[in-house]
Amino acid sequence: MTIELLEIRNFICQYPPFDQLPDEVLIEVSKSVEISYYRADSMIIEFGDKIHDLFMIRSGVVEIYRRTGELYNRLDQGGLFGQMGLLTSNKVRFPAKAVKDTLLYCIPETIFEDLCERYEVFADFVEVEGSIRLQQAVEDNSEDANSLTTSKVKTILSGEPVMLASSTSIKDVAMIMSEENVSAALIKDLSLDDEGGESFVGIITQRDLCAKVIAQGLDVDTQVDEVMSTELVSLDHNAYIFEAMLMMLRYNVHHLPILKNKRPIGLIEVTDLIRYESKNSLLIVSSIFQQNSIDDLILLSHQTKDCFVRMIHEDANSHMIGRAMSEIGRSFKQRLLELAEEKFGPPPVPYCFLALGSMARDEQLIVTDQDNAIILSNEYQEDLHGKYFEELATYVCDGLAACGYTYCSGEIMATNPEYRKTQSQWEECFADWIDNPNPQALLNCSIFFDLYGVYGRPKWAEQLNAFILRKAKKNNRFLACLARNALNRTPPLGFFKDFVMEKDGRHRNSINLKRRGTAPLADLIRVHGLAIGSQSQNSFDRLEDIIEAGILPPSKGKDLQHAMEFISLVRIRHQALDIESDQEPDNNIEPENMSDFERRNLKDAFLVLSSAQNFLKFRYTANSMQNS
After folding, report:
1. Any alpha helices (H) in 146-265, and if so which ranges?
2. For residues 203 and 232, is the Cβ–Cβ distance under 8 A?
3. What DSSP character marks residue 155?
4. In sequence order, what are the residues at sequence separation of 6 or more whose Cβ sits closer than 8 angstroms to the Cβ of residue 214?
5. Would you call 148 exposed, middle or buried from its count of C-beta atoms within 10 A (0-12, 13-18, 19+)?
6. Residue 155's Cα: distance from chain center in Å?
7. How many CB atoms lie within 10 A of CB 74?
8. Where is the CBS domain (predicted)?
9. Residue 151 has pLDDT above 70, yes or no
10. pLDDT band at residue 75 under the 50/70/90 scheme
11. Cis ω on the peptide bond leading into residue 17 (within 30° of 0)?
12. In terms of C-beta density within 10 A (0-12 exposed, 13-18 middle, 19 or more buried), how is residue 616 classed?
């Protein structure tokens, strides 16, 4: 083999799909290659041109365009283009232009067709576009995941729940439960107008019948509403079995109503979950509530990283890992608040302790700080009650920091008096941010618009969320400003390299997958979610609502789901690798530590993000919002 052919062979064997072909085939391909040179800014192929070669970039940078002139892709060394034209009647579908001086290997159509025919791995690669390849990468990752992390609670429902009127006698309740062979029934109040709300007001279980009726010698003709449990815990039908386990452990309940559109469609018991149990990953939630001091919680918190790594080894997807870590974080907060009330006494007025940001969205990972706030009763008086809530907030935030949830550098914590407000003050605050979207207000919105009631009066958090949705949805100017703010963080794609690296700090020459990936995705999804009035907080759940609302171009919603999942998984896996290497995990990844698989599919994911940001800019410009 000549030196020239050896050089071609050694080059093409480094890049997919040629890296999967036998050596004798690579030699055959190398012999057929012709070399072409294009100066910077010159067109290589035009839309509609005849095409008879597959192009591989030996050096240089090539931009690929749609027929409309919109930038579709940027390729550099090892990149392929022209395959779609060869597959569609030999006509160029995507014009290509040399951005800088570019050297190309031209592989003849006959060789291209022969490779497609003989090698499935080659055909699979060239026949799919980036978004489809990304989808396959995400699906391939999850196909071996265990049932705990991929099955939804609706799949284990055995039938509709038994629902009885609150006026039913205990005797009749027991008879019906026996006839239906169930250990619990839901109780509804027929006098209530339950439009838009949950259609049950309580639950009665066999344990209640034993402890509250038989043991107390209660008259069996008593109405069931006298003995039913009214502390209701429920879960949406789209939640995962994994979440049901977390919920039942956290609240120590044995029966969990499952809702669809806030209506009960089933009831699951602990026994329904036994075959899905994965104690190694989940018992930490139960253990949190058994600890009696901050020191105990600190010792337990060391298991959080182990839990995180175990879930990855169990092939959990990013959605499940985010929810698990968020639930663990909220459980630490709740237990600290319980301990704080034991220390300082009951609160002088009711309150709701809020989780903000990724913890509220169920997207928290192992590298996180704490963002929290307090909603206080409108009866709150600073001079009478201020000291109590200042001490409570300090106790909880210091405890969280000791358990690994570092202080927020921006001081978005309940220890900051600015973030301890009454219900009416919070509504005034959010109304002002929405009506006057200055840069600081928009920054606040990106954090505070994702909130979750952890403890106290969680209903207040739901009411505040509803207030935000009502105000934001009808304010076109605010949505336009929020959309523009969501474009401040762009994906790390450049002209001359696959990725643009961080330029300074200890993470220079790396990519921050949160700041340049998952965060801008969450930002743009939030804008669309507010525009359609989505009540969901999690980005994946919001995307389901957005897709259903039909405001995105066809297939773009699914592309966003796959992009979010893949970037999150890469981020998660590299944090796990850091933990297993006894290094402090972070959100940064160096290109040399990426596999070819990660590099290729991350680029596809970032292109999806870039395209989604372009659509956001178009949809929510001030003019288009005024005309909508």
Report:
1. 147-150, 170-180, 206-208, 241-251
2. yes
3. G
4. none
5. buried
6. 22
7. 20
8. 156-220, 228-283
9. no
10. confident
11. yes
12. buried
**Bridge partner list, 187:** 164, 202
How far out from the chain centre does Cα 84 lie? 33
DSSP 270: H
Q: Could you give the CA distance from residue 146 to residue 160 in angstroms, rounded to a whole number?
A: 26
Residue 266 DSSP code:
E
Q: Is 261 left (phi over 0), alpha (psi -120 to 50) or beta?
A: left
Length of the chain: 628
Structure tokens at 519: 């965060």
Side chain identity at residue 307, one-letter code: C
Place of tokens 């407000």: 421
Q: 281 φ, ψ to 5°? A: -90, -20
What gap in Å lies between CA 601 and CA 511, rounded to an integer? 15
DSSP 339-353: HHHHHH-S-SS-EEE
Mean pLDDT score of the chain, rounded to an integer?
Answer: 86
DSSP H/E element including 440? helix 439-448
Closest CA to 410 of 366, 367, 443: 443
Q: What DSSP string describes 201-216?
A: -EEEEHHHIIIIIITT
- Evaluate whether 233 touches 247 at the Cβ level (below 8 Å): yes
The region, left, alpha or beta by phi > 0 then psi within -120 to 50, assigned to residue 380 is beta
614 vs 606: CA distance, rounded Å: 12
Question: Quick one: tokens of 228?
Answer: 């039913």
Q: How many CB atoms lie within 10 A of CB 455?
A: 21
Residue of 365, 263, 399 lying closest to 576 (CA atoms): 365
Cα dihedral 538, 544, 550, 552, rounded to 10, equals 60
pLDDT in tens, 170-212: 999 999 999 988 889 999 887 765 544 457 889 999 888 998 8
Which is more confidently placed, 20 or 554? 20
Q: What is d(CA 10, CA 284) in angstroms, rounded to the nearest whole number?
A: 51
- Give the residue carrying structure tokens 């914590």: 413
425-444 confidence digits (pLDDT tens): 999 999 999 999 999 899 88
List the end-to-end C-alpha distance of the chain, in Å, as a whole number.
65
Report the 10 Å Cβ neighbour count for 8: 23
Q: Are strands 588-589 and 71-75 parallel, antiparallel or unpaired?
A: unpaired
Q: Which amino acid is at 537?
A: Q
**Residue partners of 615: CB distance under 8 A and separation at least 6:** 552, 553, 556
DSSP 272-304: HHGGG--HHHHHHHHHHTT--SHHHHHHHHTHH
Q: 609: which 2 tokens?
A: 């993000």
Question: In the structure encoding, which two tokens stand for residue 231, read together?
Answer: 């502390």
Look at the block and give the residue holding tokens 């009035």. Answer: 533
Spatial distance between the Cα atoms of 434 and 442, rounded to a whole number of angstroms: 8
Q: Say whether 355 sits in a helix, a strand or coil.
A: strand
